[in-house]
Fold this sequence. Notes:
By secondary structure, the protein is α+β, with helices and mostly antiparallel strands. Helices cover 29% and strands 21% of the residues. The chain has a domain at 41-82 and 90-136: Alpha-Beta Plaits. It is built from four helices and four strands, in the order αβαββααβ. α2 runs antiparallel to α4.
Amino acid sequence: MKLTIPLLAAALLILPACSSGRSTTRIPRGQAVPASAPAMVGHIVIIQLKNPADYHALLHDADWMLGTISTVATYAAGKHLDTGRSTVTADYDLAIYLGFENEHGLNQYVTDPQHIGFVNKWKPKLKSLTVFDMLDWPTTRYQFIQ
């Protein structure tokens, strides 16, 4: 039994090298590899509140009403980070990022009762709301190299 685990580990390390010898990459050889994307579809929400004192309640609801929806693959929310750069937009109270594996996941999120409840609860308390939906589809950016 003690010998089986090291042999299994060695096999798992060696097997990928036994492939066809061809590798597929989207980065030209010799170039740095960008950080991996968190999800294929990004949904970015920028919120200004009528009353900035509502920030913590809004953040709490976003965490528990949006961040827990089953089709959400990645989630982050927070306030502006002041880095002293004039080119960074600072006129918002809360930014929310939600990532989805595909467009279908985003569409299910939009119609989810938790999302609808969040919107109905907070929309009257918002000064402004801006939403960005983006598709990160790497194969449309780079030619595959073999």
